[in-house]
Amino acid sequence: MQGDGLEQEALALGALHARLSALVERWTAGVEDCQTPRENLLLFRREAPTGPCSCLVEPSIVLVVQGAKQLLIGDHAYAYDQQRFLITALDLPGTSQVLEASPEHPCLGLVLRLDLRIVAELIAQTGAAPTRDRAAEGSAALGTVTASLLEPFHRLVTLLDEPEALNVLAPLIEREIHYRLLTSDMAARLWQIASAGSQSQRIARAIEWLKAHYAQPLRVEELAAQAQMSQSTLHHHFRQLTAMSPLQYQKWLRLSEARRLMLNERLDAASAAFQVGYESPSQFSREYSRLFGSPPRRDIEGLRGRPTGAESAPVGAPSRPPRSGLR
């Protein structure tokens, strides 16, 4: 009898994957990224495997309904596909890579940005006790895809065909998705990131401060005060959760914003460097080359000439610079 139940679960999951992948394929026909009318929901499509690409990871759940992707944060690799979803807790620099994709069977999926306020409300409403799990210590984790989680995602994407009902019903479905996550094997992770006073919450405050002041000289004592931590505790937990120091994180913010300024606003390298807080163009060029693999001018020329299909987005979502929506 137990075998029959598992078989039925597998059949239901397969049917949901098939229906959801058909919807995502239709909405992404001819494009790599489809920003939906729901600002926190994005659909993506890749038709070829890609090399590693520097990206921004926002607090999100990422579902792959066809194909496979991988996220690298520091020394940790998170490979996800139809059986596993990715959940991320903080705004993090990472490396995204498409592992399985072809024109006939593209890598298809969606990104839903998490609302930690909803998570906190549901925790208070349900009164469930927190669980202890070492998986909750990282900034990203992999969860098991189930039919109960996939079904509301299917309803949410289906709702895109009903624009008059979308703004009324989508918030209810999104709240259900957050609840399903709290009843999944990612419950411990969500407890940690949503709990006021947790280390994740304090590091999140430090990250918000860095994003708002990335062009200014970094004073670690001021950052520690914002996070309500000692300097040593801040360094320890910041590196544990982001795989870098606060100074390295600020450098990444500066260089990513300079790249956006050169690419989208056509600033020259020296102007972009000064605007994001560098005093030395030569230091900027050296650090830019170490991060992106090429000097600024060559990198920007390569980006402008990049062929369709190159991986260019954070875990499936369009990257956003520090001053235009980096969350």
From TrEMBL:
<dbReference type="GO" id="GO:0003700">
    <property type="term" value="F:DNA-binding transcription factor activity"/>
</dbReference>
<feature type="region of interest" description="Disordered">
    <location>
        <begin position="288"/>
        <end position="327"/>
    </location>
</feature>
<feature type="domain" description="HTH araC/xylS-type">
    <location>
        <begin position="204"/>
        <end position="302"/>
    </location>
</feature>
<keyword id="KW-0614">Plasmid</keyword>
<dbReference type="GO" id="GO:0043565">
    <property type="term" value="F:sequence-specific DNA binding"/>
</dbReference>
<protein>
    <submittedName>
        <fullName>AraC family transcriptional regulator</fullName>
    </submittedName>
</protein>
<dbReference type="InterPro" id="IPR009594">
    <property type="entry name" value="Tscrpt_reg_HTH_AraC_N"/>
</dbReference>
<keyword id="KW-0805">Transcription regulation</keyword>
<dbReference type="InterPro" id="IPR009057">
    <property type="entry name" value="Homeodomain-like_sf"/>
</dbReference>
<dbReference type="Pfam" id="PF12833">
    <property type="entry name" value="HTH_18"/>
</dbReference>
<dbReference type="InterPro" id="IPR018060">
    <property type="entry name" value="HTH_AraC"/>
</dbReference>
<dbReference type="Pfam" id="PF06719">
    <property type="entry name" value="AraC_N"/>
</dbReference>
<keyword id="KW-0804">Transcription</keyword>
